[in-house]
Please model this.
Amino acid sequence: LAEAERLLRTTRRQRGAGAPSCLWLLTDGRTLEQPAAPAAAMHVVIVDFDDPLRPVGRCAAWAARWQAEHRMPEPLSS
Model:
């Protein structure tokens, strides 16, 4: 996330402060860390790849804490 924040800040400097920026975080939520939301992202989407057989359910809370959009991945069709 530190690298994402750095890249977002660099992009904001290059494109201007008003340029849209979005961070998509793909995670299963299996971390005990509670990092701060990247300040340089105007919009954050957390895609929840939690194990449906043994869910820990942290992604929705993480998204709420960050005021981010919370999404579940759509199954791949064959």
